[in-house]
Specification:
Blueprint: E1 7-11, H1 14-17, H2 30-34, H3 53-66, E2 71-75, H4 78-81, H5 91-107, E3 110-116, H6 122-125, H7 135-150, E4 156-161, H8 163-172, H9 184-209, E5 214-220, E6 224-226, H10 232-239, H11 250-258, H12 263-271, H13 280-284, E7 290-294, E8 299-304, E9 307-309, H14 330-342, E10 346-351, H15 368-385, E11 390-396, E12 415-417, E13 424-426, H16 428-438
Parallel strand pairs: 1-2, 1-11, 2-3, 3-4, 4-5, 5-7, 6-8, 7-10, 10-11
Antiparallel strand pairs: 8-9, 12-13
The protein binds 4-nitrophenyl beta-D-glucopyranoside.
4-nitrophenyl beta-D-glucopyranoside (PNW) binds near residues 161, 162 and 350.
């Protein structure tokens, strides 16, 4: 059962929906610049115009109101607000976000603001980005600007979205902006600066907004899942095994919450020649009010001859349009593992599904599979909510949008976007989600 006052929301991110890449005095970011190179993004798409939310935000908020959405998670485009990343604040950037917040207030939708969802200011990238020892301070300054600007309007801040992706995919495997394949030794240093930035930002926001403000992070979380009932502890172990890479959650949230890196990671860092003053950990350690999870699926695990193994999914396991497996129990074991380790209230800051779909001859989008996916995942979440503290759920995403390297080819929205006319059309799932919200979840059992 979902508790009273459960937060039912939808999520988006700036680069994926805003467009308006060259409006007013907006600065460029690594996605504006990086997506221009051929071959990186599906069919040469870019977020330059995107869903044109920059101009159509009033319509998007109106749709949220119409569908009874209680909370809206969106991100601030750092270089729209601060064209150079630090220093000057753009009047147009200020105006845009304050008007959006005003509109949300009128619609009775609670804003949850992500400070950084991958669109790093290009001006700061040119100075070395997260490798620069000053980079934590740049993020602190930006967080302070956001806190001062939004303090009367926003009660929930999410510091960063998925360090796993913008570090791992952006700087290690090179699939996302800034499309770099850097050695682990460098990315380890960047991750450390990201964590220092989060620690500074958390303290800065509290100093500006006071104690009432709630602060959390959003982690890309693909939990290991038991292949059989006997594999639950193996799954927990594998979830937090912190293999040598940037994909696990605890590599980041052990430092943020406990003030220390996982033991196994220290060995890896030392091999890569990475040293830092112990005093850094006091800066990184933060008081988080909630633990945000972004989960779409997980990986099955079991044990063979004492070792953890990852058997390939059977051919009958359903796959979404991103080829991710449909494993609804990710929303049962996942939050339980996180709760047992961190004892923080959990918020699903993202979950959703991409389907190969289009408007039918009658102009409708009959996305029954999305409704089925939602029912399956939310039933498992409801089961978890009987055992651990779960405060909210944000569907990814409100509208179809720019799915990074996949361009506009992957459609996650409850609302269809016609990329020729930018017209919005609610899908069948939007009406379903509306009922889910109205009944505080009862609808998922029908
Ligand atoms: C998240 N993975 O990205 C992001 O926060 C969103 O911006 C994105 O649109 C959404 O999920 C859907 O993809 C992820 O492969 C991308 O582990 C890839 C993974 C996880 C999250």
């Amino acid at each position: 059962m979902f508790k009273k006052n459960f937060v039912w929301g939808v999520a988006t991110a700036a680069y994926q929906i805003e467009g308006g890449a060259h409006e007013a005095d907006k600065g460029l970011n690594v996605w504006d610049v990086g997506s221009a190179t051929k071959g990186r993004i599906f069919d040469g798409h870019s977020g330059d115009v995107g869903c044109d939310h920059y101009h159509l935000f009033k319509e998007d908020v109106r749709l949220m109101k119409e569908f009874g959405i209680k909370a809206y998670r969106f991100s601030v485009n750092w270089a729209r607000l601060m064209p150079e990343g630090t220093g000057k604040i753009s009047e147009d950037g200020k105006r845009f976000y304050l008007e959006l917040l005003e509109e949300l207030k009128k619609a009775g939708v609670e804003p949850w603001v992500t400070l950084f969802h991958w669109d790093y200011p290009y001006a700061l990238f040119q100075k070395g980005g997260w490798l620069n020892p000053e980079s934590p301070k740049w993020f602190e300054e930006y967080a302070g600007v956001c806190a001062n600007l939004f303090k009367d309007h926003v009660s929930h801040f999410i510091l960063i979205n998925e360090p796993q992706c913008f570090l791992g995919l952006g700087h290690s495997s090179g699939e996302h902006a800034p499309f770099l394949k850097m050695p682990d030794s460098d990315v380890i240093r960047m991750a450390h600066n990201v964590l220092l930035g989060c620690g500074l930002a958390e303290k800065k926001i509290r100093s500006v907004c006071g104690n009432a403000v709630k602060i959390g992070t959003a982690q890309a979380y693909w939990p290991a899942l038991p292949l059989t009932d006997a594999d639950v502890e193996t799954a927990r172990e594998a979830t937090f095994a912190c293999y040598r890479g940037f994909g696990s959650v605890n590599y980041y949230t052990d430092p943020l919450i406990f003030g220390r890196y996982p033991e196994v990671s220290r060995a890896w860092q030392e091999e890569c020649g990475f040293k830092f003053p112990e005093s850094d950990m006091q800066i990184i350690k933060s008081k988080l009010d909630f633990y945000g999870l972004n989960t779409y699926t997980g990986d099955r695990v079991t044990r063979k001859d004492g070792e953890i193994v990852y058997p390939k999914p059977a051919a009958w396991v359903p796959r979404t349009d991103t080829r991710w497996t449909v494993y609804p129990d990710a929303m049962y074991y996942g939050p339980k593992f996180i709760w047992d380790r961190y004892h923080l209230p959990i918020v699903y800051t993202e979950n959703g599904v991409a389907l190969a779909e289009w408007k039918d001859l009658n102009g409708q989008i009959d996305d029954s599979s999305r409704i089925d996916y939602l029912k399956r995942y939310l039933r498992e979440l409801s089961r978890a909510a009987d055992e651990v503290e779960i405060e909210g759920y944000f569907y990814w995403s409100l509208i179809d949008n720019f799915e990074w390297a996949e361009g506009f080819s992957k459609k996650f929205g409850l609302i269809h976007v016609d990329y020729e006319t930018r017209a919005r059309t609610p899908k069948k799932s939007a009406y379903f989600y509306q009922k889910v919200i109205e009944t505080n979840g009862e609808e998922i059992w029908k």
